[in-house]
Fold each of these.
Amino acid sequence: MEFTNPANGGSVMNTISAFAQLIPAGFETQGVKSTDGSVYVVVEGQGTVEIGGTSYRLAESDIFVVPAWAERKFQARQDLVLFSFSDKAAQERLGLWREHLA
């Protein structure tokens, strides 16, 4: 889910996009890569993230970064709630943002 500015329906800031994501326990996401760099915070739950082929364990309060065009996949051991923000809004305004499902 992407957070939006209630005044205009756009991104929360002119250059920053913000997101909340729920990955249910036992679920594994498809790999995806995009041109924006993202910062993630684990709000609650446990799981793993694979970034560019390397796996990392995730637990509540962990903070991690996914660089631009690095493939990411998530797997949830418990319901995994993530908050993230990125420069997607700026890239969209410049016509640069791209995403690819692996």
Amino acid sequence: MRRAFLFDMDGTLVDSLADIGGSMNHVLASFDLEAHPIDAYRSMVGEGARSLIEKALPAGREALRDEALARYRARYATHMIAASRPYEGVIALLDALAARGDRLAVVTNKPHAAAVAIAESLFGQGTFALVVGEREGLAKKPDPAPALFAAAAMGIDPAACVFVGDTAIDVRTARAARMASVGVLWGFRDRQELEDAGADRIVAHPSEILAL
């Protein structure tokens, strides 16, 4: 049976917190609002850019959301890979999976164009069979739609897919799509969140995924 591995991007493939948090803090400063510590963004990412804006803006400033989103997208577009890098061991993992014939895809709530640009810049064209980001007409994770779309596009049965991510959102996506779920500990969330979400496996290093 052919297998596929579907990867979340931020906190799973790519350590992107500095670029995401830095871009958001730039937006906050443009409104004369107080910035957040970069580490605070660990709990804000994962549900898309609009959700990030809602969490980062202080209470009572909801009227700024649309303009803040526009400013964030403009800033992030030019700072997507200023500091972002693949996590240690990730490229070796992808190479090993591809070498044994597994299909690879990215399924993320990051805007689609940004996700494609980052995947190609940091991993090269052709590493992933496809990249599925947030776009109109396709529900976001934890809805199973983007994971199922990726599986269908690759011609792989969902039962032969493994969804790899660092948050409860990723685990819930996998469960809803009837895929195996692997939670990773090198990302933005902790073991307790992954366990509470019901991850099938939890790994501390990318190399462990090869032995599952």
Amino acid sequence: MSALRLACVALALAAQVALAQPQPDVAFEARLKRLEGDLRCLVCQNQTLADSNAPLAEDLRREVRALAVAGKSDDEIRAFLVARYGDFVLYRPPVKGTTWLLWFGPFALLVGGAGIWYAVVRRRRAGSAAPEAAADAGVTARARAMLDDIRE
């Protein structure tokens, strides 16, 4: 029976220790997740800080948490990280002179590629029209010659 009592006491102590642990602040954790979702992993570059498993992302998450615990606002945390790492750390960087290429570069490449494609197709059509006209003239001449032979 003493083993059962010992197990009950151990279970009760474990429950007290678990209850004594501070419960995480749900609003604070949601704020950190939202903030981490607005920041880019500097290693992965196509993932948010919240989604990345890179060691640098873990370090940045710890730094963001430390700044938030220190009482910094979201804007102050973003400003600190932008000052340290540049606008690229923001998952949606602001549109300004230094980020213009980041925002509009892919569209410019798409338009340029479409223009090149159009020019190539147009050149091919113009280049292939002359041989077709010459071939049509040759066929027409042969057809007339055949008709002349039949009439005679």
